[in-house]
Design brief:
single chain, 497 residues, alpha/beta, Amidase signature (AS) enzymes, eleven-stranded mixed sheet, two-stranded antiparallel sheet, 15 helices
């Protein structure tokens, strides 16, 4: 019997073949959950715009299924899309009231691929305004379904919360500085940041092009792999993707084997990668108790745990790799390509009283910086050193991947005045910068919960285009532990299958 809560892509397709559910019914069920829990109930605020034509699209797919079977690998699957990604038939707000109602008139490359695969774009999700944080003037505050008083991870907050709360099957997020892995770790999800050239960014507002990438958020590793199959590949409209030619396997699902951890060498990074980590804090101890259990589970499944791996000068390399020199020119160029955009520059955004103060303050730091600055050269040199240090560590220890906590601390309590204060609210203990600065792939997987019931994520980082290896290790770990569980704040509705 089909069960909606926690349903996977395979579950849904099996139910469709058995006549237990139609795409139209599936869409209606998810819409019922959104109506019950997004602005009512725990008021999670994950959905920016619901696709009013989703039921109509579902009926078309049901008719096609009856005639000739599935139209693609995501036939009838309701997908949530971060509102940083353009959709021809829905507004794209970037989390900002400045862009409320804005429509670009085109689909992003990722959305084109989703539609071609048979997916239904069910909704656009809330996001940290202009891809930072978990608040925005277009919607307010997005909340963690495991404790709505706490932050859900940003900036793909709505995509993470929506999948965790079963508002859709899978979601598209964007990761510049952890914005896929953050909500994955905070919401007991799988979140994959691909190698930068693997997935086209065409039709997505940039943040820092050398770091920007789109990727999957899902409740299982297999669904993550299925979604990556659809997203990955060369797109001439995003020339950097030419680097992925010859690097994309026929299917990432071929890597999914419960025995794949046997003989795999994984190096542990225990050194906090974030300057604000407090190893004396109670929640640090709770997170690392879960992490130590995760490492024992990896070893029990056959992995050889190496370390802790010491990477000389790692914190200093991360510090020198920071800085925003690309953002202003990239965003301005993107806006210039949209004649109907309500603003045309980062400077206009900073001067707008509609944008939340903390985001204006953050954008203000970007103004006047360009890739011609001497600091940019220093940043590039530091990142080259960082890549060499990581590749050397992987080679010297004969490692397939590095592992560490996605966050060293639990989700923060959301301040009551968060929409009005100018200072940025940053989650403590975020270890996201390493993969972001490298441009390498990383996957966050559920690693259990702290005693108060807050999710913990373990992150695997690999070499460029090693998504298959990361999915291998993540899948075997997931199947050995089954840590994922849905939040109590969004239970099954009455009459829900």
């Amino acid at each position: 019997m089909f069960r909606l809560l926690e349903a996977t892509i395979d579950d849904i397709h099996a139910a469709m073949r058995a006549g237990e559910i139609t795409c139209r019914q599936l869409v209606e069920r998810y819409v019922n959950r959104i109506e019950a829990y997004d602005h009512k109930g725990p008021a999670l605020n994950a959905i920016q715009t619901l696709n009013e034509r989703a039921a109509e699209e579902a009926e078309r797919l049901d008719a096609a299924f009856a005639r000739s079977g599935p139209v693609g690998p995501l036939h009838g699957i309701p997908v949530l899309v971060k509102d940083q990604v353009e959709t021809r038939d829905l507004p794209t707000t970037y989390g900002s009231a400045l862009f409320r109602g804005f429509q670009s008139g085109r689909d992003a490359a990722a959305v084109e691929r989703l539609r071609a695969a048979g997916a239904v774009i069910l909704a656009k999700t809330t996001m940290g305004e202009f891809a930072s944080g978990f608040i925005g003037s277009a919607f307010g505050v997005c909340r963690n379904p495991y404790d709505p008083a706490r932050e859900p991870g940003g900036s793909s907050c709505g995509s993470g919360v929506g999948v965790a709360a079963n508002f859709g099957v899978v979601a598209i997020g964007e990761d510049t500085f952890g914005s896929i892995r953050n909500p994955a770790a905070r919401n007991s999800l799988v979140g994959l940041r691909p190698t930068v050239p693997l997935v086209s960014r065409f039709g997505m507002m940039p943040a820092t092009p050398s770091q920007d990438t789109l990727g999957p958020l899902a409740r299982t590793v297999r669904d993550t792999a299925l979604l990556l199959d659809v997203l990955a590949g060369y797109d001439p409209r995003d020339p950097v993707t030419a680097q992925c030619v010859g690097q994309v396997p026929p299917s990432y699902t071929a890597f999914l084997d419960t025995a794949s951890l046997r003989g795999m060498r994984l190096g542990v990074i225990r050194e906090p990668l974030s300057e604000d980590t407090d190893p004396t804090a109670a929640d640090y101890a709770q997170v690392w108790a879960a992490m130590d259990e995760a490492l024992r589970a990896l070893a029990a499944a056959g992995a050889e745990i190496v370390g802790p791996v010491a990477i000389p000068g790692l914190r200093d390399l991360l510090r020198r790799s920071a800085g925003s020199y690309e953002a202003e020119a990239a965003v301005d160029a993107y806006l210039a390509a949209h004649p109907t955009a309500p603003v045309k520059s980062v400077r206009e955004i900073v001067l707008s009283a509609e944008v939340v103060p903390s985001r204006r303050a953050r954008f203000l730091e970007d103004l006047g910086h360009t890739t011609s600055d001497q600091g940019y050269l220093q940043q590039l040199l530091a990142r080259a050193e960082l890549r060499q240090a990581i590749l050397t560590a992987l080679a010297d220890h004969q490692l397939q991947a590095l592992v560490y906590a996605s966050f060293d601390h639990a989700p923060e309590v959301i301040p009551a005045d968060i929409l009005s204060i100018p200072r940025r609210i940053a989650a403590r203990g975020a270890n996201r910068a390493l993969a972001s600065y490298l441009g390498y792939p990383a996957i966050s997987v559920p690693a259990g919960f702290t005693p108060p019931g807050l999710p913990v994520g373990i992150e695997f980082l690999g070499r460029p285009f090693a998504e298959g290896t990361l999915l291998q290790s993540a899948y075997a770990y997931e199947q050995a532990t089954h840590h994922r569980r849905p939040p109590a704040s969004t239970p099954a509705l009455a009459g829900e299958p």
